[in-house]
Design goal:
The complex is a heterodimer of chains A (120) and B (518). Chain A has 120 residues and is an all-alpha fold. Chain A has helices at residues 3-10, 14-21, 24-33, 39-48, 52-69, 72-85, 93-119. Chain A has one domain (3-119): HPT domain (Four Helix Bundle (Hemerythrin (Met), subunit A)). In chain A, 79% of the residues lie in helices and 0% in strands. In chain A, α6 runs antiparallel to α7. With 518 residues, chain B is an alpha/beta fold. Chain B folds into three domains: 10-138, 3-Layer(aba) Sandwich (Rossmann fold); 167-353, Hypothetical protein af1432, CATH 1.10.3210; 400-510, PAS domain (Beta-Lactamase, 2-Layer Sandwich), CATH 3.30.450.20.
Chain lengths: 120, 518
């Protein structure tokens, strides 16, 4: 799997990311770092603990990271969740979170596959 | 600040996401030194310790503990924002956020997602602009210093001309200048009756050099007559006060300049007496401006302790005795007290400033000044000194095996050498500890020692600034009997000012919490 194929599979904008980061090396480096980013796990944990303020911050961070990397699909779902959590009110939070979870897991699965091809 | 080209500017990145910090670091680390912090409180604490060495802050808005706007509020409160440019980087695109950031004085706002070359360019622009501004500030400061120095030189040349004609050494002007300054500073400490500021003191001391310019209008044969003056001659001699004042009054320009006003008072009234029997106007008491009163005492003291064509020099002690006894005029009792108070300092200074020492000391001072001046501007030198002190104290604190603390009131920050010894997870620098929920809770759980310290600090004074107390303190959940040696920090600038407290806490032993210690 190539970097472009990874982006295509997860609904991301490879060309945009490359345009902003100027080199494939940098895109690849930070895409792989996403595996270790803990904003998603913080989001899960704070939702479980009903700490909505923390959940907002985590969703917000996740959204920012997706913006830089051009993970457009996850960016869309995490943005919706962020806005819903912004004032602690939280309409449709479970449904919105479910979408985030689905998009996130898809990226992680594809990333692990991509990482494997890189290590070969 | 420094012109060393191999020295990198330091950028502080405050962002709670490691990914974001890493990305910014990746694209900036080539050219800059990068420091990353993960929440607003850490950013404030870092700036508190390093505000002089940070060239730029890249600031996220949404962060735990304190958000970007809280950091900006702090930076405004303590004026760090004047010296450190801030660029906000955020995925918030709402114009209200951006407007608020600009209102707080940020220099630039970069929205996510960003192009790395845009970030690089904006960062370098911000740093260059501020570096230029800092350079300009230091040039202006140096020029003001230069101008002041030139003014002083002009005044002292002018007054030396008068003295040269008088057959006196140039030392008289120098002495009067020095004694005037010492007396005024002491007077300011003793009373606010005369509304003196440090700027006034500097102007009056400078103007004191002009006290005898009127002698230029006195004929040589009277001025330098070795024998006793006739009544007629004495009258003409006395005229030098009015002549000097007239010379200043006839300057068309500069009439409103404080320096000229003080010089006028000094020239005209430095031979008045507090009892009203002086000349030329017979002013009584505090109708004589304080500038003239002070210069009059300084003039008499220096005349007594110098050799003149009609007399030998008296010693310091004899001169003071003669003035105190009223043998050489009548003075304000408060001014005489000041003279008494500065007596020892004055004796020392006069020895140093005797003609023999003078020349070599002047050369030494000048060359030292030149050296310092060429290497560093005044402002940079002060910053370096501050940095030196900071590193020095950090070193000593870290070498102590006991728990040491520093508490400063502006901005309120408590710094601890071993934060974890109080309770786990305590941070090294606590901002505004007495409004910090976690720290307050800790204190309320019977931390008797902290109350005792607070109470004792309130009783310190400039002179009585150290104390030692004993009390109970909970260290990692165990109540211990501890001894605390403290020193309240007072500084003196115009008036005493309390700045904070430093201390060392020594464990004496474990203590049953039920035992009360007095």
């Amino acid at each position: 799997m190539t970097l472009q194929e990874f982006y295509a599979a997860t609904g991301g904008g490879y060309e945009d990311a490359l345009g902003r980061l100027h080199s494939e090396r940098l895109v690849q480096k930070f895409v792989l770092k996403f595996l270790n980013d803990d904003s998603y796990s913080l989001l899960c944990r704070s939702l479980e603990e009903k700490n909505m303020e923390e959940a907002f911050r985590a969703a917000h961070t996740l959204k920012g990271v997706c913006m830089n990397l051009g993970f457009d699909r996850l960016l869309h779902s995490s943005s919706m969740l962020t806005e819903s959590l912004r004032n602690g009110v939280g309409e449709n939070v479970p449904e919105l979170f479910q979408q985030v979870q689905q998009d996130y897991e898809q990226i992680i699965a594809a990333l692990q596959q991509f990482k494997k091809t890189q290590e070969l | 600040m420094s012109n060393c080209s191999n020295e990198k500017h330091k950028i502080l990145i405050a962002d709670d996401s490691e990914m974001n910090r890493d990305l910014l670091s990746e694209i900036l680390a080539d050219k800059y030194e990068i420091v990353g912090v993960e929440d607003g409180l850490q950013a404030i604490a870092y700036l508190e310790q390093n505000s002089h060495s940070v060239s730029l802050l890249l600031l996220d808005i949404v962060m735990p503990k304190a958000d970007g706007f809280e950091v900006l509020a702090y930076m405004n409160k303590y004026h760090w924002i004047d010296d450190i440019p801030v660029i906000m980087i955020s995925s918030e695109t709402a114009s209200s956020y951006i407007k608020r950031a600009y209102d707080f004085g940020v220099m630039d706002y970069i929205s996510r997602p960003f192009d790395i070359s845009v970030v690089q360019r904006r960062v370098s622009n911000a740093i260059m602009l501020y570096a230029k501004q800092r350079k300009l500030i230091s040039i202006v400061a140096d020029q003001i210093y230069e101008k002041d120095k030139s003014n002083n030189i002009m005044i002292s040349i002018l007054s030396h001309i008068v003295e040269f004609r008088n057959g006196e050494s140039g030392l008289h002007v120098l002495h009067i200048n020095m004694i005037t300054e010492m007396l005024l500073k002491r007077l300011m400490q003793k009373t606010d009756r005369y509304n003196l500021s440090m700027a006034d003191i500097s102007l009056i001391s400078m103007a004191s050099a002009l006290h005898d310019i009127g002698k230029i209008a006195i004929p040589d044969e009277i001025l330098n007559k070795p024998g006793r003056l006739t009544d007629e001659e004495f009258k003409r001699m006395q005229y030098h006060t009015e002549a000097g004042a007239e010379m200043l009054r006839s300057l068309n320009l500069y009439q409103d300049e404080p320096l000229v006003k003080f010089a006028y008072q000094i020239c005209r009234w430095h031979h008045e007496r507090y009892d009203g029997r002086g000349y030329p106007d017979g002013l009584v008491g505090d109708d004589i401006p304080i500038a003239a009163q002070i210069v009059a005492v300084a003039d008499v003291y220096d005349a007594l302790t110098s050799e003149r064509c009609y007399k030998k020099a008296y010693s310091h002690d004899v001169a003071l005795q003669m003035i105190a006894n009223g043998e050489c005029g009548s003075f304000n009792a408060l001014v005489l007290e000041c003279l008494e108070d500065i007596s020892e300092e004055l004796r020392r200074e006069m020895q140093i400033n005797s003609p023999d020492h003078k020349a070599s000391k002047e050369i030494q001072e000048l060359s030292a000044k030149m050296q310092r001046y060429e290497e560093l501007s005044a402002s940079t030198k002060m910053l370096w000194q501050l940095e030196f002190e900071r590193v020095k104290s950090q070193f000593f604190v870290s070498e102590l095996s006991d728990l040491a603390f520093v508490y400063q009131i502006e901005p309120p920050i408590l710094t601890l050498s071993r934060p974890n010894s109080l309770y786990a997870g305590m941070s090294e620098a606590i901002i505004d500890p007495f409004h910090n929920a976690q720290f307050e809770e800790y204190i309320q759980n019977g931390e008797q020692l902290i109350d005792i310290i607070t109470e004792n600090v309130h009783q310190t004074t400039m002179k009585q600034s150290s104390f030692q107390v004993t009390g109970l303190l909970k260290l990692n959940g165990v109540t211990k009997l501890c001894c605390c040696i403290c020193r309240a920090i007072w500084v003196f600038h115009d008036q005493p000012r309390y700045m904070g407290v430093v201390g060392r806490i020594i464990e004496l032993g474990e203590q049953d919490a039920s035992l009360k210690v007095e």
